[in-house]
Amino acid sequence: MKNERKEESDNLAAIGIGAMIVFIALILVAAVAAAVIIQTAEKLQQNAQASGDDTQEQMSTKVTLINVVIETMDAGTPSYELFVTFELAPGSEPTQGDDIGYSVICESGGNTQFAQGDLTGATVHTGDGAGAVAITLNPGTTYVFVMEIDECAPTANTDNILLFTVTSGGSTYEELQYGSSPSVGDVVV
Predict the structure, then answer these.
(1) Whole-angstrom Cα distance, residue 188 to residue 86?
(2) What topology is assigned to 63-177 in CATH?
(3) What is the mean pLDDT of the chain?
(4) What is the torsion angle, in degrees rounded to the nearest 10, for the CA atoms of residue 176, residue 177, residue 183 and residue 187?
(5) DSSP label of 89
(6) Is the pLDDT of residue 93 over 70?
(7) How far apart, in whole angstroms, are the C-alpha atoms of residue 175 and residue 105?
(8) Measured between alpha carbons, how far is 89 from 170 in angstroms, rounded to an integer?
(9) Residue 90: what pLDDT?
(10) SS3 118
């Protein structure tokens, strides 16, 4: 008698191992993709936060002009002063008066002239705007300041540029518009 030997192979186990290898590979690919997506989202969030902080600093910490009036016009001295009423923009941080500078830019005889200074003399709106020391300016409070503009005298039918710049903050741009015959008491902003 012949012994017949039958050899059978078990293919089921090989299919199971192959499926497990494919499953592990898919988990690894998904983990790498998730890490890339999370890293990209985090970087975008950091960039948005930095942009938001910069924008808030530039927009909030600046001067909001309420009124600018010609206070002194003496061509003989020469002495020219503007009485400025202002406040800090909403959301601003308390700021020292000497951390806010102003520049008045004008044309005189074909040359550009500048009158510059800071808000060291600013006082609360009930004062005269000629304080001796720099005070801390707080948002929500109205202040006054006497601005000397001797280099940029009010001239009929001219516009001068007024810039306020806050250290580590924003800037405010306004035009000083003088009418046909500027005189003491005229509102120029």
Answers:
(1) 14
(2) Immunoglobulin-like (2.60.40)
(3) 84
(4) -70
(5) P
(6) yes
(7) 10
(8) 10
(9) 83
(10) strand
